[in-house]
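Deviation from plan, reported transparently: S-adenosylmethionine complex.
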Amino acid sequence: MSDFTPSALFDNHGRPLEYVRLAVTDRCNLRCFYCMPEEGIQYLPKRELLSYEEMERLVSILAGLGVRKVRLTGGEPFVRRDLVPFMERLSQIPGIEELTLTTNGVLTAPHVPALARMGVRSVNLSLDTLDRTRFARITRRDELPRVLDTLYALLAADIRVKINAVVMDGQNTEDLLPLAELTRELPVDVRFIEEMPFNGGSHEATPATLPWNHRRIHEHLEQHFGALVPEAGRPGDTAAHYAVAGHQGRLGIIAAYSRTFCGSCNRIRLTAEGGVKTCLYDQGVLDLRALLRSGATDDEIRQALTQAFRHRAANGFEAEQRRPVHQLSFESMSTIGG
Ligand code: SAM
Ligand code: SF4
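Because the crystal trials were delayed, the predicted structure below was used instead.
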């Protein structure tokens, strides 16, 4: 026995870590141009991905450290075989109060009843346009109808839906209002995300020169809907949410590139190959797969995690500055999980 006493996990800035985002695969059935190249993707060999057993063990350890919320992401979570039984096991880990996922919705609809049965209460659905032609151009696949099936299946099952739309200059800005209009009749959150220049998307901008930053998105929405009424958020929220008079759902804006929300960040990111990121913008600070596969005890893993968060950057700008020079270009979000 070591003398290490598990306790809640806090970083060196006093922020509690209560939320883990677990990328279960780096593979995807879409090719969103801001996320993945069209061809030539080098997927990780299966042995380099964490196994479900390894992920379960990590989530149990994290739950012992105070993590309460798990989000599965990817790549596309549903392209990994046997995702649903894995989720069922995660949902039974003591301490995990909220299990959720981020999905592109192409393969999701048939699994919605199982998600509802295991207690999933909310799902993030990525959807950048309601126009089939633009959807096919952005994602390089003609799959909008199946994504819409997922939207309606989730609503019918009473699972809360948060639609995430990346705002891309010259690509889908005409889609902002039609997407936002969904909130009029449907009880959904429609959240607009600043595009981050990862994987050679549509811009090379800095946060200061980003054509569609959170302020411009806000102005654009207000021109159409009138004054947006800010809603109180939960600690750790990345989205600023707004009510619109008479609408059933809410609007949201996520300043992912301007990074306005780092002060209350409560997230741990685990990549599909078991890397820990203490910030979306850091280069990865701990190799949990190596630890797990070298026979580390739970205590050793807890200590390694605790240590990693003692050196966490104050915000995404500091994390970016600390990256080694050879790693200044960012990896695809499909390996980080967004
Ligand atoms: N495949 C799933 C999906 O699309 O929902 C989960 C993984 S995906 C990487 C998670 C989120 O990251 C998606 O909402 C996607 O729009 C977002 N994302 C990917 N690349 C991005 C970028 N360059 N800028 C902003 N958001 C991005
Ligand atoms: Fe796939 Fe999601 Fe990336 Fe699109 S954003 S390519 S759906 S991982």
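Residues 118 and 235 are 25 Å apart (CA to CA). We consider this an acceptable substitute for the interim report.
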